[in-house]
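Input record (Table S2, row 362):
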Amino acid sequence: MTSIAAAQEAARQFSSTSSRLALQPLGRGLINDTYLVAEGGAHWVLQRINRRVFPDPVAVMANLRKVSDHARRVRRGCPESPWRLPEVIPARTGEDIHRDERGDYWRAISYIDHARSLDSFANAEQAGQVGRALGWFHGLVSELPADSLHDTLPGFHVTPLYLAGFDRVVDGLTDWPATSGLGEALAFVAARRGEADVLESAKAQGKLQPRVMHGDPKLDNVLFDTRTGQAVSLIDLDTVKPGLLHYDLGDCFRSCCNSAGECMGQGSAAFDRRVFRAILEGYLREAAHILTRDDRDYLFEAIRLLPFELGLRFLTDHLAGDVYFKVDEPGQNLSRALGQFRLTLDIEQQERAIRHILNQIM
Ligand code: GN1
Ligand code: MG
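Output record (GN1 complex):
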């Protein structure tokens, strides 16, 4: 069965009518397969969960159910709130997940109408809206104890574990790919290995506490209302699980402040401090009350670490044969890695100015 035929078949399991279902690929995620389903006049989203990445899709759905039910309860108490999260649509069996005969797992969630993501910012106001979206989300999930969610991706955003994984892949290599730029990437990692555990050791010392996090708050995952221009949702909730707020903040700045965009063109990767300031201000409007002194003290480390970590993950996957992140062509994961490393370097070079903004605003 082709993958679109499998998706059609899976979509049927979530459909509540006998209308024809029209599917089209949605978004540009690197892990799951996502489709927009048109059913009658309505739309919803169908996803195949990547089993290689998420070993326990049932636990992923349990987390998603918990967070989206919580958001619905909060919204009931505050109906005028603009913020929305995608809601789980159960299969016809009543389960939140459908397993097909090939063993693939599928789920359906609501589609947020009149909303779209941005490729880049037209102004600082939009960047501020991204900060507000992440701050709103952190405020919302701060009401759920971190251990009330499953750890669906052990080691996710734990940089020293990615480094250990990288070392394992390097040790096991018999043939080195002859890609240009590889030497530069390896040297970049070698020069920074000592700094990889900065957040994990702060966690081990009790300075940073695990909380519920989003896990992937990149620009693509923030939806803006097409009528008001305001951010209204943070989507892609697969990675919602226990973690550090710093993973989210670092990842959001990594994605949104990169003037090369998430497409990861390497040459122009640079950290835009105006965007950074606007996001941070927006974030604090919603979430200042949940940050401790130590949380604030480790922000710069997170801003520097997350692009390095993603670069390391891309590089490892390049060396391992592109088994984790989808690629359109060979060498793409190396080029993504180099893009993230250039961004990391630019952040290092702007450290004083970035810290100055943090001190001013915090
Ligand atoms: C992956 O699948 P997608 O695009 O939502 C990855 C993120 C990376 C991102 C880079 C579970 O997210 O951590 O930041 O690619 N998700 C997972 O674009 O590994
Ligand atoms: Mg994601």
